[in-house]
Design goal:
Length: 70
């Protein structure tokens, strides 16, 4: 399967935060995602609802919504 799901101009995909990534230990509100936003974080088998104060950790799997203009 594919890690993306496209429906009516919305594209969801997953990205894993890995050791050494600039996002490790950063709060979501301090990061720029350029038209994208984090829908959910999978952390240790649990779903985390992302908030501005949520800190990203190594191993987090981000479910990202990419709003397309077309």
């Amino acid at each position: 399967g594919n890690a993306t799901d496209k429906s009516e101009g919305i594209s969801l995909y997953e990205r894993t935060i890995e050791k050494g990534d600039v996002e490790v230990d950063q709060k979501i509100k301090s990061l720029t995602f350029d038209g994208k936003f984090i829908v959910m974080i999978r952390r240790g088998g649990k779903a985390v609802i992302p908030r501005g104060e949520t800190k990203l950790l190594e191993g987090d799997v981000l479910v990202i919504n990419d709003m397309e203009d077309n």
